[in-house]
Amino acid sequence: MTIARYSREQMAAIWSPQTRFRIWFEIEAHAADAMAELGMIPKAAAKKIWAKGKAVEFDVERINEIERVTKHDVIAFLTHLAEIVGPEARFVHQGMTSSDVLDTCLNVQLVRAADLLLADVEALLKALKRRAFEYKLTPTIGRSHGIHAEPTTFGLKLAVAYAEFDRAKGRLAAARAEVATCAISGAVGTFAHIDPRVEAHVAKKMGLKVEPVSTQIIPRDRHAMYFAALGVVAASVERLATEIRHLQRTEVLEAEEYFSEGQKGSSAMPHKRNPVLSENLVGLARMVRAYVTPALEDVTLWHERDISHSSVERMIGPDATVTLDFALARLAGVIDKLIVYPENMRQNLDRLGGLIHSQRVLLALTQKGVAREDAYRLVQKSAMKVWQGGGDFLKLLEADKDVRKHLSEKELARNFDPDFHFRHVDTIFRRVFGRA
């Protein structure tokens, strides 16, 4: 279950008992309003329900006390509400079933949680964009398989993350829309004891759409999609956090988390500066993804309903949203304060003696009429010498008579200009951030 260490107040409040009971009351009170307009209950009763319950703070312990006897949470709440409202409480919950309240409430909570998560992503995008433009043309080495490949820029690394979280924003918005439905359809969803117009009224008041067809519950494929979207966003959090962890390794040290005055990295070694926030984010992302499987399994329920999903959702609803909210906020802070070392990036670019330009030499040879396989063999011969014993790749190529048959010293040297790789950075940035 959620713990204070990884919780932020606004998201945690969505899942508090007081908030839940407040939403339950609003669902019941809005339903009563609609029933009163339709002549199903007295208008005076609907007004009394609102008057008595609108500003009250529900007694959570009293509800828990009643539930210990009834073994039913909604009945316990309705009993407590009757203690507050008085005789008119008999008109509450007319023709409704518990799932009408529980499912509609859960979806209200998930929508509110999605709104906070969307705001979190916006804050992260803002930090990523600022830092991406700051290091737009800062050369660094691109790696494949963890091995030096070809030059890129640190700004492009951050632009990749920006684009990924921009997609995350779209996924969260879609998940919000998917789960934003209301069901006030009664036992087995047939509206036998309640008018569909009551559902429409409650849906509008609670900021939801009506569920087109419910079976006493709102179909759980909606919720599965919601938690799957959270899992994908968490995976993106982990990807970026892992990148930072690798960049902070002592042998790399191209970027590192901000280390505040007075902070300590190790109880034993005073010199340590560890990527603890990024490591923490990896762990939190794993937890959010762990909630996806039970959400998928909740889709399969017996006939018109059972409650095998209930215990799952009581856990994963708060846990997944609270944890991802915390993780996104933490990641935004890491990016905002990330310490970047351009000089170390430059040193790492030069570390392999120019091997990172091998493809340009290969292509230059093919342009001179050399077969690709032959060109590859010629370039690799010198490249492997550098791998095995160090040295200067350009000088080895210049000394290779087979290479020099096709490329002059000047032509070879032209292929070792790192700026060549950054010709289209502006194009990529326009694609990601727009012309502004």
Question: Strands, helices and their partners?
Answer:
Blueprint (H helix, E strand, L loop, with lengths): L8 H6 L2 H21 L5 H11 L6 H11 L2 H13 L12 H37 L4 E6 L2 E7 H26 L1 E2 L13 H10 L3 E2 L10 H28 L6 E2 L19 H15 L1 H6 L10 H30 L1 E2 L1 H8 L8 H10 L4 H18 L3 H6 L2 H4 L4 H6 L10 H9 L3
Parallel strand pairs: 3-4
Antiparallel strand pairs: 1-2, 5-6
Helix pairs in contact: 2-3, 2-6, 2-8, 4-5, 6-7, 6-12, 7-9, 7-19, 9-10, 9-12, 10-12, 14-15
Tags for this model:
single chain; 436 residues; two-stranded antiparallel ribbon; two-stranded parallel ribbon
Task: Describe this structure as you would to a colleague.
- The protein has 436 residues and is mainly α.
- Helices cover 63% and strands 5% of the residues.
- It contains 19 helices and six strands.
- It has helices at residues 9-14, 17-37, 43-53, 60-70, 73-85, 98-134, 154-179, 196-205, 221-248, 276-290, 292-297, 308-337, 342-349, 358-367, 372-389, 393-398, 401-404, 409-414, 425-433; strands at residues 139-144, 147-153, 181-182, 209-210, 255-256, 339-340.
- The strands form three sheets. The chain has a two-stranded antiparallel sheet with strand order 1-2. A two-stranded parallel ribbon has the order 3-4.
- Strand 1 and strand 2 (147-153) form a beta hairpin.
- Helix 4 (60-70) packs across helix 5 (73-85).
- The protein is elongated and about 100 Å long.
- It starts with 8 loop residues before the first helix and ends with a helix.
- The model has no long low-confidence stretch (mean pLDDT 95).
